Amino acid sequence: MTPNQEAQVLFLDCGNSRCKYQMGERRGYWLDIDAALADIDHWQPMQVVIATVSAFGARLREALSASARCKISVIAVRNGWHGIQLAYPDPARYGVDRWLTLIAVRHWQQNVVVVDAGTALTIDAIDASGQHRGGYIVPGLALMRRALVSDTFALPAVAASQSKAPGHDTADAIANGAVLALSAAVSAACIEYALSPCRLVWTGGDAPVLAGQVEVVGEQMPDLVIDGMKQLYKDAAYMESLG
């Protein structure tokens, strides 16, 4: 695939909160399908490659298929691809977004812990041989705060926070407590994996908030899911396996 050809491919990472896109120099995200379809009509990609874990992504895929705008390829988990052996007994139940982050870092051939800080915060690790060491899934920052406020009587509305310092009122105690809980979860996961040396990588919308709160120094790669999609797109055998 030449750079010019890749520039005509629209890559979509449809999560629970938004759908990120990349097509050549275009990159951003959509929050509703009408905006997505309007942009796609204008851009006229030769192909759409989509990874989805959400109802939004499923509806967008259906709308694109119904209109026959272009060729559509839906990424699916394939255990063993690129040397990654998943820890899940049933790989089909492993999230495609989580798998794509592992695909994106596999070529380093290093021990890697990947944290995707989105609606949910997921933590996964692979060792240098490509063996998946399992993962963790916990509520993300906004979900954790919202669940506590929604399900507990008479708690105040809570704003976002970038601190894990002790709160001096209830709202701050909830907001900062969520940051504390998730940063501590990542630190504990790194200990549980017991991979040394190990590279820590962050992706997802809340990565800039949490990465600096963890003692283990990591790096932020905001487009890690799409990076994995691009690697698979270059793999003709994999794309053929999608049918």
Question: What is the overall number of helices?
Answer: 9
The oligomeric state of the chains shown is: single chain
Low-confidence stretches: none
Mass-distribution shape: globular
Total number of strands = 10
Helical content class? 25-40%
**Helix and strand succession?**
HEEEHEHEHEEEHHEHEHH
Major beta sheet summary = 5 strands, mixed
How large is the radius of gyration?
19 Å
Describe, in plain words, how this protein is organized in 3D.
By secondary structure, the protein is an alpha/beta fold. Helix content is 39%, strand content 23%. It contains nine helices and ten strands. It has helices at 3-6, 33-43, 55-67, 96-106, 141-151, 170-193, 207-210, 224-233, 236-241; strands at 9-14, 19-23, 26-30, 47-52, 71-74, 112-117, 120-126, 132-139, 199-203, 218-220. The protein has a five-stranded mixed β-sheet, sandwiched between helices. Strands 8-7-6-9-10 form a five-stranded mixed β-sheet, sandwiched between helices. The two termini are 19 Å apart. The mean pLDDT is 93.
Q: Quick recap of the structure?
A:
This protein has 243 residues and is an alpha/beta fold. The chain has nine helices and ten strands.
Which characteristics define this entry?
5-stranded mixed sheet; 243 residues; alpha/beta
What secondary-structure arrangement, pairings included, does this model have?
Layout (H helix, E strand, L loop, with lengths): L2 H4 L2 E6 L4 E5 L2 E5 L2 H11 L3 E6 L2 H13 L3 E4 L21 H11 L5 E6 L2 E7 L5 E8 L1 H11 L18 H24 L5 E5 L3 H4 L7 E3 L3 H10 L2 H6 L2
Parallel strand pairs: 1-4, 4-5, 6-9, 9-10
Antiparallel strand pairs: 1-2, 2-3, 6-7, 7-8
Helix pairs in contact: 4-8, 5-6
